[in-house]
Amino acid sequence: MHISNIxxxxxxxxxxxxxxxxxxxxxxxxxxGMSSCNECRCDHSxxxxxxxxxxxxxxxxxxxxxxxNQWAFDDQMGMFYCSFDVPEITANVYNYGTFNLxxxxxxxxxxxxxxxxxxTSYLSAEEDDGxxxxxxxxxxxxxxxVGIGVVEVFLTISDFFYDGFTPDAMHFRLxxxx
Length: 178
Description:
Structural class: alpha+beta
Oligomer: single chain
């Protein structure tokens, strides 16, 4: 028997063993991937001191509506605002979750769409002083803050255009992931 035949037999056995190891690793990853959770939540209150929590996630979407008469105006800040009580934002959700707020246009209609906040829009309106009508262009900015149990939406418009202005009703969608 030649040395080359011995080497080929040895190399063939190694390649066969490597194929088995690679196959085992791939199958392990497939099984782990298929057994991962779909709905999860992190329970940080029960974790032993210093250890990592077992994390699962949970997603929830809430509809928030501001009617035209619900907007309040803050004279000092020069902006409109509305507060929503959101008991779903617990201390655990606030500390370990994430939040996204979207403005929904044409809510409930076939052509409804959402825009993530903050949002800045460039708009126009007709202004009538009794003698002349003119088109006024202005900027509108919508932003929000989140606290435990509360979401506040802020609407700021251009300084030169808010005499007698009141924002329209608006629909928002709050997405919580925790």
